[in-house]
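Lab notebook, bench 4. We co-purified these components, and the gel suggests they stay together. Before we commit to crystallization screens, I want a quick structural picture of the whole thing.
Request: model the full complex, all chains together.
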Amino acid sequence: MAKNISRREFIATAGATAGFAALASMGLYSGWGSNDSDTNSDQLDSKELNCDVLVIGSGMAGLFAAVKAHDAGAKTIMVSKGRLGSSGQTPFAKGIFEFGAQKSNVTLDEFVKQVSESALGTNNPIYTRQMAEHSKARVGELREWGFFDSPLYNKSFNRPIKDRNIPVVERVTITHLIKENGKIAGAAGFSIDAKKIYFFNAKSVILCTGAGGFKPNGFPINDLTHDGTIMAYDIGAKVTGKEWNDGHPGRSINPAACYDGWGDMFEQKPNTTSVSIRHDLGVDMNYMAYQQGNPIKMGHPGEMNNVTLEGGPKRPVLQGSGMESEKRPGGKRPPKGKGAPPGMGGTPVGGSSAGMAIHKSEGLVPINDRCESNIPGLYAAGDALGSYMAGAIYTQIGSSLAGSAVQGGVAGEAAATYASGVKQLELSVDKKKELKDKIFAPLSRDAGYSPAWVTQTLQGIMIPNFVLYIKKANLMQAALAYIEELRDHHMPLLRASDLHELRLAHETANMIVSAEMKLKASLMRTESRCSHYRLDYPETDNDNWQAWINIYKGKDGSMKFEKQAFDSVRRS
Amino acid sequence: MPINNISGCIGCGTCVSTCPTDVIRLNKDGKAEIKYPEDCQICHLCRMYCPTDAITITPEKTIPVIVSWG
Amino acid sequence: MKNSIKNYNKWAAILLFFALPILIYVLSDFPRRSILKETISILTLGAFFVTMLQFFMSRAAKDKLKEHRMATVIKWHKVLGYIVAGILLLHPFLIIAPRFFEAGILPQDAFIELITTSTQGVILGIITWMLMLLIALTSIFRDKLGIRYKVWRMLHGILSITFITGAAFHVIELGRHINIPMLWLISVLSILAVALLLKLYFFKTSIKA
Ligand SMILES: Cc1cc2nc3c(=O)[nH]c(=O)nc-3n(C[C@H](O)[C@H](O)[C@H](O)COP(=O)(O)OP(=O)(O)OC[C@H]3O[C@@H](n4cnc5c(N)ncnc54)[C@H](O)[C@@H]3O)c2cc1C
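Here is the predicted assembly.
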């Protein structure tokens, strides 16, 4: 109630006078969600769960990972920091690509070839093909579960999960992956509702934790901070794609209002999309704003390609694709909608998805086409996997959702197969104690920095157009100096007063590491290509940069970088 | 205020779990309360999932907003 | 004289059970929603106030209604009774009805979620909904019940007291348009309503029909 009067108190008094005190004491609330966190971490409860395959994340990728791992015979548990089908980016995506549903004159080979052309070679054709090949089957299953019948996905996602009795642990934030003897052994995290730490003993783990950003304004990704990537990096996994950008604009009026910025799209039922290859949502608009200032001059954002500006990101000339005919930057929306994508409704502003790269370009490095990482037993799928399915620019509309579904399925089966061949590793008591202390450390700090303040500081450093969008070495170095300060001095002193803030503290730490990765990878890539644009290296350098950048933690704990050639991908 | 008002709440808790950024909690009366408005991303999932349609949302953010250019 | 008292009663009723709630509704900063939703709210709120008014339009208020023709009063009591019972019985469905016309959770899912929520306000709502159904059925089929009129009247009164008590708590606990003035108005009117009937039972055990 808005007025802050307690109806319960009123009823208790009124009830007592009227002789109905019993009614008032009838309350059946268990205190769920009340978050009255006592910050004494010694009193924390812990819960231990065992499974063959642990799926972290409950978006499109998590759904299929859990279902397919279960169907392949693995005892599967799903855990998410949010709710099934109502967390991450999945709830907001309304167009899913279905290859070969309608009669099309594009063959699978042609499709892959066209994507590679538009992506300037940055895509991994194995994953591009896999996505298209399996999309129809996944879309079919979704249809069966009622996915296309409602704008809200919790119910349809629950169908297959309930049918299979797959346990879903919601509102538990995973903060650590656990490795024993060089193999994955499980994960740990905490509940935001009760003072409880969760240990999952798992033979195999699939990260379906989505992408992330700097809690930007205008794109509904404020629950995503690349958690999966950072915890995997911490135990030695290789990650990639940190130099790319998702260039979604927002609106200048109420830029933080995601719902309003997307017109009526969040209220639409999902739909399927068909072949239409594009080169969308890079940093063209950022370049225009950088050169011209605000407001950007154009009829509507979709016409930006007609405005001739000196220099700026290069766009490939594509033949036989939908790119020339459709010019809306919000190309990821389904074809039928009537709402406007961000920026269409007024003067656009940038950075609505700051801190996020093109879907599927950033995340764990797969060592094969089975979504497997370099850590035995650790898999990733969807936005958490750096599969380069679409390349370093948006190519096929609706393929992000389809790719998450397809990769979830692939990873689920692969993880189940892996799990059937290994033994469960026990977590040692020492390890558990150590994790418990680490996870709850921000709660026990008397003095420190609030995650909100550190986040805003980081946003001020990273979001401006001239740092990660229109890049040049000296500014990135300057930003890096700030970020390293946050990393060395503020990250260790993040403080939390309750469980909500504890989650923010962990998210903030992940954003700091992400920012470091993004700046360093961007500095390393001394060329411009797709959604990575450098003012000091505006040309595409095919001699040196037909390669992805992989990032891993060195033995000394420092951040290491390596190149991986575009054509070096293996199939299993 | 992003989430402006919650009235007609029956205390089912759906909005609490539905909110991706954990903005809403149940108060001691068992009613949904806008506890962390500064973290609201104004995505309207809570409103769309609420069985009694109790939630009203406005597009303003409670804290300063950082964008890439302005 | 007769007429002026009649008028006075009428105006008092209109003021207390109609004008005052509307005034509170208009002056308060309740979120204004779509016309359909506001209409449904006003209809339901109105039905609840008329339900409280029903206590004062019965033989329990005979003293105050001396100047009125009791038969007319009872006729109105019946007509209004069936109308508000209808609205209140529809009320749980009216809450979810707008979902037929807008995006969001499906109305049937909303309904299931609604009635399976085990909080005090909802449980009271379900109990009072059943009481309302019982009141309506025992009124419609009064002749078929095979009980004496006086017994029926007692039954009707007791059911009504239980109903209005539970309903008042339900409304105060869950009402979309509850603020402090509304809360007081409902509390006072419902307590008066109950008191009126109780007085009848405890202090005038034998009234002539
Ligand atoms: C507004 C918008 C519109 C879009 N439109 C389209 C479209 O039309 N078509 C299209 O194809 N794509 C679209 N996309 C992209 C698409 O939504 C994503 O690519 C896709 O949904 C990703 O699915 P996912 O399962 O990989 O990750 P997500 O859906 O992001 O799920 C991540 C999951 O991981 C969980 N998680 C994260 N961190 C943790 C942690 N530490 N502990 C536990 N759990 C954690 C989250 O709670 C969440 O459940 C859109 C995205 C947005 C934001």
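The radius of gyration of chain A is 24 Å. Worth comparing against the SEC data before the next meeting. Chain A touches chain C through 26 residues (CB under 8 Å).
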